[in-house]
Amino acid sequence: MKLKKELRPALICFGIMTVLCGALYTAAITGISQLVFKDQANGSIVAVHQKNGTKIEMGSRLLAQSFTKPEYLVGRPAGVSNLSPVSKEEKTLVQERIDWWHTLDPENEKEIPMDLVTGSGSGVDPHITPQAAEYQVTRIAKARGMTEEEVRHMINKYTSGRLLGFMGEPSVDVFMVNLALDGLI
Q1: Which Pfam families match (predicted)?
Q2: Residue 15: exposed, middle, or buried by beta-carbon count in 10 A (0-12, 13-18, 19+)?
Q3: At residue 149, what are phi and psi to the nearest 5 degrees?
């Protein structure tokens, strides 16, 4: 009898908190996000409309896509690593990535920007630095039969500055540049 008397308030509290936190709170946050941040709440999906009227979803602007062909702007390496920046394993990974870049673009004698050979904290960062984009301009222009200025123009179009003019660093949206290079946007 005593157990039933003590268990009842605990079960009632559990039920109330489940409804409040599990259902009402979730519904409220989802509703607010759909009203205020609809695009972001739905994954920032980039869709391309074909001439016949069909819509093709190309991917999310929030997640890096893998581009490895010479005609594309290549982003940061994928994968999260908790290796120390001075560990032997990290140095080996960086050297493998440097070797890959020399294979992809053997004529490029410029120094490879660090964000092209080191992973981001999330492992899915869709942006690179303007310096990393500039490193790739000549290769992309040559592979596509474009001028370097045409490639730079597309890169500049999808380069964002510092937030509020002083926070963070400028960044290039790799996915959007590649869609523009393909003439899809």
Answers
A1: KdpC
A2: exposed
A3: -65, -35
- pLDDT of 171 strictly over 90: yes
pLDDT at 139: 97
Q: Which residue has the tokens 């003439």?
A: 183
Give Cα separations from 137 to 4, 18, 74, 105, 185 (angstroms): 73, 54, 11, 11, 19
Q: Is the domain of 147 the same as that of 175?
A: yes
Contact 99, 118 (CB under 8 A): no
Are 83 and 113 contained in the same domain? yes
pLDDT at 100: 95
Domain span holding position 173 = 49-181
